[in-house]
Amino acid sequence: MKKTGGCLCGSVRFEVEGEPVSQFLCHCDDCKRQTGSPFSVCVCYKSQKFYLIKDDHLVGHDMVGDSGNSLCRKFCSKCGAPIFTIADMAPDSTFIKMGAFDDPSWIKPTLELYTKDRVPCGVTGFEMDSHEAMPPEF
Ligand SMILES: [Zn+2]
Ligand SMILES: [Zn+2]
After folding, report:
1. Alpha-carbon torsion 10, 83, 49, 38, what sign?
2. Of 25, 49, 59, 119, which residue is 20 to 30 A from 96 by alpha carbon distance?
3. Domains of the chain: which residue ranges?
4. Nearest ligand, measured from the Cα of 5
5. Ion ligand 1: residue ranges with CB closer than 5 A
6. Angstrom distance (rounded) from CA 25 to CA 18
């Protein structure tokens, strides 16, 4: 079954096929800044199951994470909506922002990362496997 999503203005549209590999919250300071929220919620798919249908105005911001690996945060340059991230440390994976899905109601994160950077309003009340930073097996 395919799921669809995109940015606020409709310049970027994507589809994913099948089930995600993982779903997690990230409390790191970079995610706060990029999303404007206490944490970001990411849904990870194998990149071959992720299809960009429309990528007008899709741009990327390259950064180096605190693990020393580089990553690229993709967003729409017209409306500013964050869409997905690709990371050198997981070259086969695409990390899609929960809010980019047309229907995010099915999304249920099971893991939270970088709880060392969690802010008081970033507490969810959900039972999750918590990690202070990046889990070693990630
Ligand atoms: Zn847009
Ligand atoms: Zn993060």
Report:
1. negative
2. 119
3. 2-130
4. 1
5. 7, 9, 11, 76, 78-79
6. 21
